[in-house]
Write a structure and sequence with these properties.
alpha+beta, 6-stranded mixed sheet, elongated, binds adenosine-5'-diphosphate
């Protein structure tokens, strides 16, 4: 009895794109089907370890062409499909890569460029429809009595029939499309094409991939000229080397091979930004092949994101995302580790306590960091690209675990700075420090332009000191953990500091404070939000500014209050600094001397001006408005 099914909408959409794709790299269908076959064999092998009813076999994948029937058949003796599998896995888009792909295509509405993505993405079984207009899947699971035949013409629906003579495993029969002017589909029936494609895309598959290869043998018979006649025979031959790319000698591996491997395995359509490869022998023995994606994975900062490297032992796949192999701050790294030091049947639980694994993880971490350092030194542009995508992770790395990793990470950080157009390292900042400069100054702002508008920056600029511009939320928290770099302390320019002053200037400042004691105290009384009003040591052209003392800074106040569990009550101290040399301050002070109670409004406006300069919201915008209107009216009346 034949059952008919409709494809789900999203599957239809994918099929539609596949079929109508003008994409030229249709050839990737073969690597997709072979990769599925290899996965299916892995699954059967694993099942055989725990299920007595399932025998372990001599595994193989066959690719067979039939020129007369115009079919290409891919056969594996893997896990096969149960009836339910057929409906769930081939009737629906099971694979996350395919889903993501369809979403991307939908979003970017099928421009020509998007179509190029197909080849890079790998869309599994459905890619068969790029070259076939009818696909049969004949399959039997070792767990079911019955075998099935799935047939789809790849448009709307598919059917499933029971079959009695299916062998365990899966046979996929592609009925190739008719040739067109542009595409000769029957080239996929050519043994040289098949060999080329297998070597190009599937060479490392660990099971033998076999195809029929023509051999010419000389026979005893002679031709007319008396020469031995040659006879054509077909031999089923293994065409892949079965050595995974990371187990090959470096000289046999090209960048292109690595890039292709990465894109295929980690479902990216772009080449990786960085490829890291190493072969370690010593306390632990392992090989690793790691990649940093050019673009951060879209879900990198979602809690559902799973970090980790694939784990192989002796070339055999063990675990997909072994999280023990990567610290959190390097969670964006993709790749694998293949070691000789772990048993094949290790469980996830055992892994957590495994000493070799801990050693490997340490060594992997150092390798990644040393590779990043090398990139920073040798290819600054590339490192900057890296840092733009992943810098924030390194910053969290400094911050986490109470700064345990800070020594390792501090020289990998980049910062915007006042004096430089490009981002600089802490070492570069330190090396460029001026004589007499005691601290590494930083300013928190939403960008460099806003930082430049901070009033406190004036004095520092005058001295020619550079200022690091912090724009990431984590920046200040990170600097709190770092505390100093190469024995020089970090200093927030918005936290009142007088280390810019000479001893004489300090004395002068103290004198001024004393002289203005009452004025400052009365200003403060008019401003309940303000902790203190002080004479500024840093202002030159602005009348006043706000600073935050030595506790938490304004930026941290913002960040902490934005956190979900905050009650919005965390507050940095507000210290109003006034510039005694500014004309406005002088005038206000004169007025104060005439009449102590007449400066209330000016005090408020000075404070509001300081808030605005600092990029902070006004406490009472309505009141500010009224004061401003009154002031303008008064000044025009005169
Ligand atoms: P993916 O392989 O990425 O999951 P596919 O659309 O290619 O996506 O395949 C969907 C599912 O069908 C697979 O996850 C697997 O469970 C099953 N499958 C595909 N090919 C085979 C095969 N040769 N043998 C057994 N199961 C297969």
């Amino acid at each position: 009895m034949s059952e008919k099914f409709e494809f789900k909408t999203e599957t239809k959409r994918l099929l539609d794109m596949m079929i109508n794709s003008i994409y030229t790299h249709k050839e990737i269908f073969l690597r997709e089907l072979i990769s599925n076959a290899s996965d299916a064999i892995d699954k059967r092998h694993f099942l055989s370890l725990t299920n007595d009813k399932v025998k372990d076999l001599d595994y193989e994948i066959k690719v067979e062409a039939d020129k007369a029937l115009r079919t290409l058949t891919i056969t594996d003796n893997g896990i096969g499909f149960t009836h339910e599998d057929l409906v769930n896995n081939l009737g629906t888009i099971a694979r996350s890569g395919s889903k993501e792909f369809v979403e991307k295509m939908n979003k970017e509405n099928q421009g020509k460029d998007d179509v190029d993505i197909i080849g890079q993405f790998g869309v599994g079984f459905y890619s068969g429809f790029m070259v076939a207009d009818l696909i049969e899947v004949i399959t039997k699971s070792p767990l079911e009595e019955k075998g099935y035949k799935f047939i789809s013409e790849g448009l709307e629906s598919y059917s499933i029939d029971e079959v009695s003579d299916a062998s365990e495993g899966t046979k996929i029969i592609l009925h190739l499309r008719a040739n067109t002017d542009d595409v000769k589909y029957d080239e996929y029936l050519d043994e040289y094409t098949i060999k080329d494609l297998v070597r190009k895309y599937s060479d490392y598959i660990r099971y033998p991939i076999k195809t029929w290869v023509t051999k010419y043998e000389t026979s005893d018979e002679k031709d007319e000229k008396g020469n031995p006649k040659s006879v054509e025979t077909s031999v089923l031959e293994t065409i892949n080397s079965m050595t995974p790319i990371w187990r090959k000698e470096k000289k046999d591996v090209t960048d292109e091979m690595l890039n292709t491997f990465y894109k295929q395995k980690f479902m990216d359509w772009q080449d990786p930004l960085l490829t890291i490869q190493s072969n370690v022998e010593g306390n632990v023995t392992y090989r690793t092949l790691m990649f940093i994606p050019r673009q951060a994975p879209y879900d990198l900062y979602q809690s559902s994101y799973e970090k980790g490297l694939q784990l192989y032992t002796k070339g055999v796949f063990v675990i997909d995302k072994c999280k023990e192999l990567l610290p959190d701050y390097l969670k964006f790294v993709k790749g694998l580790v293949d070691t000789e030091d772990l048993p094949l049947n290790i469980s996830r639980e055992m892994l957590q306590e495994d000493r070799s694994l801990t050693l490997i993880a340490k060594s992997v971490e150092s390798k990644i960091l040393s590779e990043l350092k090398k990139t920073l030194e040798k290819d600054r542009a590339k490192y900057e690209e890296f840092f733009a995508s992943y810098g924030v992770n390194l910053k969290y790395g400094v911050y986490e675990n109470f700064g345990e990793k800070k020594e390792k990470l501090q020289d990998l950080l980049l910062f915007e700075s006042l004096n430089s157009d490009k981002k600089i390292t802490l070492r570069e900042y330190k090396d460029a420090m001026k004589e007499g400069q005691k601290s590494i100054y930083f300013a928190s702002a939403k960008d460099k332009a806003s930082a430049l508008m901070l009033p406190q920056i004036e004095a520092i600029k005058e001295k020619g000191f550079d200022v690091l511009v912090l724009t990431d939320h984590v920046d200040e928290f990170m600097l709190q953990v770092l505390k100093e770099y190469d024995k020089v302390e970090f200093k927030n320019i918005a936290q009142a500091n007088d280390d810019l002053l000479t001893e004489d200037e300090k004395k002068e400042l103290d004198k001024k404070k004393e002289e203005n004691k009452d004025f400052l105290a009365d200003l403060k009384n008019d401003l309940p939000e303000v902790k203190e009003v002080v004479i500024s040591s840093t202002l030159t052209t602005s009348p006043c500014c706000l600073s935050s003392g030595n506790g938490i800074s304004f930026e941290m106040e913002k960040v902490l209050n934005a956190q979900q569990d905050s009650d919005g009550k965390i507050r940095a101290d507000r210290i109003l600094e006034i510039n005694p040399n500014h004309e406005l301050v002088k005038l206000v002070e004169e007025r104060y001397k005439e009449n102590k109670d007449s400066i209330k409004d000016y005090a408020k406006l000075l404070y509001d001006a300081a808030l605005i300069d600092q990029g902070m919201p006004l406490t009472d915008p309505k009141e500010f408005n009224t004061l401003l209107v009154n002031l303008m009216t008064a000044s025009l009346k005169k």
